Amino acid sequence: MSELKNAIQAIDSSPSSVAKIGLIEQAIRLADSLGEEWQAFSLRDDLISVCTEYGQFMKALVAFSWCLAKLDEKPQEYRFNYSMVWNYSALLTRAAAFDQVSLERLHGLLADFAKRMKAIGASERNLHESAIRIGIILRDKEMTLAARDGIKKHHEDAYTDCEACAQNVLVHTELCFGSFEEAMKLAQPLIDKKMSCNMVPLRTFGIMINYMHRAGGYEELAWRLYQRGIKLIGKKGGFLEQIGNYLIYLSEVKLTEATKVYQNSLPWALNETEMPWSVFHFHIGAHILFIRQAAKRKAGKLKLDNRHLLYKEPPEGEKSSSYDYLALADYHAKEADALAARFDKRNGNKIASELFAKEKAYMRYQLR
Fold this sequence. Notes:
The protein is mostly helical and 368 residues long. The chain has helices at residues 2-12, 18-34, 37-53, 57-73, 82-96, 103-119, 125-138, 141-152, 163-177, 180-191, 202-215, 219-233, 240-253, 255-269, 276-294, 325-347, 351-367; strands at 299-302, 321-324. Among the domains are: 1-78; 235-368.
């Protein structure tokens, strides 16, 4: 028990970081081995929060499934409390970003979440906010707009999104299914720093950036928001959808910056625990980047993660190797195509492949 106590103290004194995940996992193994079930439950609850923050979603899903099973097995000992509600809400959206999770399973999870929320007397607003996020990933207009209307019918309570997250959802909905002008109006409090949280406007700016750049008249603002957004991402990981969009944007305005962002974020994209939907966006952005690089010159020096399929050991005394830009563009196109096919199959439509085709068509139009 003293070893477990020391492990928990180490966790409590450690700041939130990727390294903290390892500390919590070690403590969970100790708690499991000692039969300290309540402590194992509490530690897994902590693990879910930290993993969600730093992009380790598969670990979070496994831990949450364990907690949910214990809650159902021993309802007198465990409660569907505030923390469980927020973890369920966060992981619902992440589940949609894994093509391995079927549509039937997604709708089943939403129904289960609704049942549990009703049982504790919570507002349905959180449920609709989760449904919007799933609908956006699926590009299901009917589902998304119905959920947005549902939000208006239900009051806020302790379980609903913070005002920044709620605003972000509305901005994203308008960008996908409404008007850019309305999205900009909704985004203004986030741009003006009147609303913010741990995840917003980090998520918002990466989604807005290309809409703003292509609308025209927002060049200076777009660059400022990119700088704020990339700084907020820092070394967190888990925001590859935003980074993919930044790569597309930067490939049009500043290729050297795009190359830097690519090299820094590549390790996250090669991490098997990342959400496939986010990795898909990263590959799209990387493909666009290297096609634009190839339009200027054939090859260039890069420092790639050694897990990259095209990785080459740098010459002695150097930190980077020379890479053919078209070869890199082709590699990322194949990866994006493969992921698009997987999501199209899961979703029963061609939304993912059409999204990639649209970006390629826009790029070809600009390069002609």
